[in-house]
């Protein structure tokens, strides 16, 4: 057998996630919410006309995942990402198991990166599952029909499906940035609840910053804004500017968060447990 | 040789704010030793072991295992296994899965030793139960199993018998004795002298983070055995005779209890008996004290904390034990 490393840690982390309730709580909510939304629309065909694509939900199922993304970015998806990412390091502190895994044959950095990849995997899975379920539920309720873009043109259902997939992919950027921030709090606070709540507060506060007079200029650089960047795909022609900006703004949140978390994790005394 | 010793601590110090948990500790554990790290609660045993395992960073000094620095890389722990305080596992996973998880982090063929390790600690029947439902003793045994699958040359155990019932303690002792007989070097901490006495060939006694004795257990035993009890018809007179007598030291008398003192050798005792008879204090009892290692241990670890008296006591002790320090 070969030398254990980050990948070994990653597999172990997945094994642990599979055995924990919070994993299923997060994934379950990610699946359930779009279903409830679709059922509500089916029963009472009103339309949330004040959000982009809201008024198309009775015309095409492809509008469902997009509306879900829009509503979910306020707190729902950040919460789902934080649920596991905020716990993945703190959980070890809580169980006193850091000493158990740090006295084997993997370096602290490998433990850390294994956890990062595992937390990212979970967040990605949650978003994709949620998007797929929203799309299927939407198609069942409103049909597989052409979808109007934000520029007013009409896309075929097939191309619309591709755009939905692309939107989910773009949406992963801010989600992973949120995951990274949750990992930072998880490492620093060593307490799962504090990390999850802290991440959620952070996410909500960013949305409030723009209310403060004079700070609205910050809007393009706030993490919360990047949750809408996928809308660039739904223009004709596609507008890549917000997506490119999202890529580096999200990196500017994620990379320092992970770097600080790693530094703290490498240097800290493991004296609990 | 001591460069590659299983454990070499040099001036090891760990400070937590104003508390010096480990204070300038130097010691060497040699291959084949069962080394007892003995001291009351709060003496700094766990903190020292944490530094040997690379879990915490020393404030000063260094801890080396087989010549390597565990602060730098886990590679230093290649031949080391053990745990500090109670071993901890994931409560939501069963015993077997927990062991598989740590074995995967060991690499090599650690996984192939899981079944055997479970057998050794007699947990095979419970391997499929969640660790959350294990008793303290079972977790302690699972901790040993997790250490054994690394097939270490050095086993570090922090108070391994704590919280076990008498049967569990006996099993733990038997296991440690067996592993030692198979060639494993063991360092175990304890606050119980009896535990160390039974298992260890060498000890370090720590108090408030400082080593107050390090050496062979036999030497310590010999030192403890030289205490003499004396009862006479007139203890006041006897005390005067004892004072400043060559070969006699550490005269103590607690109320009506017999006088106790240390004698350098038997000749000194012979001389003393004649002097006592001459002085008119008739000997009612003159015998090696029942003062055991236990008393010495308490004396070493629970004194008033008078540093000077402590040093003096230590010097004498190392004289008595042939200066093994
Ligand atoms: N993480 C810590 N933070 C602050 N003080 C600590 C910490 N760990 C240990 N101490 C203090 O260091 C001293 C030694 O503790 P410890 O090594 O656990 O002793 P032992 O294992 O011999 O009972 C104690 O006074 C304890 O309170
Ligand atoms: Mg302790």
Task: Write the SSE topology.
The complex is a heterodimer of chains A (273) and B (325).
Chain A: H1 6-18, H2 21-43, H3 63-72, H4 76-85, H5 90-95, H6 98-102, H7 108-142, E1 147-148, E2 154-155, H8 157-189, H9 192-209, H10 223-226, H11 241-267
Antiparallel strand pairs in A: 1-2
Helix pairs in contact in A: 1-7, 2-4, 2-7, 3-7, 4-7, 4-8, 4-9, 7-8, 7-11, 8-9, 8-11
Chain B: E1 7-16, E2 19-29, E3 34-38, H1 45-52, E4 60-65, E5 80-83, H2 95-106, H3 114-120, H4 136-148, E6 154-158, H5 166-181, E7 185-190, H6 193-199, E8 202-207, E9 210-216, H7 217-225, E10 227-232, H8 235-242, E11 248-252, E12 259-263, H9 266-279, E13 283-288, H10 293-302, H11 307-320
Parallel strand pairs in B: 3-7, 3-8, 5-6, 6-7
Antiparallel strand pairs in B: 1-2, 1-4, 8-9, 10-12, 10-13, 11-12
Helix pairs in contact in B: 3-4, 8-9
The complex binds adenosine-5'-diphosphate (ADP) and magnesium ion (MG).
Adenosine-5'-diphosphate binds at residues 16, 19, 21, 39, 41-47 of chain B.
**CATH level 1 class label of the largest domain in chain B:** Alpha Beta
Question: How would you describe the shape of chain A?
Answer: globular
Within the largest sheet of chain B, what's the order of strands?
5-6-7-3-8-9
Radius of gyration of chain A: 20 Å
Strand share of the residues of chain B? 25-35%
Helix/strand/pairing class of chain B, anyone? alpha/beta
Q: How many domains of chain A, as an integer?
A: 1
Overall mean pLDDT score of chain B? 88
> Main β-sheet of chain B, in a few words?
6 strands, mixed
Instruction: Tell me the number of structural domains of chain B.
Output: 2
CATH superfamily of the largest domain in chain B: P-loop containing nucleotide triphosphate hydrolases
How many E-type strands of chain B? Answer: 13
What is the residue-mean pLDDT of chain A, rounded to a whole number?
Answer: 95
Poorly predicted ranges of chain A (pLDDT <50, ≥5 residues)?
none
DSSP summary: helix tally of chain B: 11
| Percent in strands of chain A | under 5%
Give helix % range of chain B. 25-40%
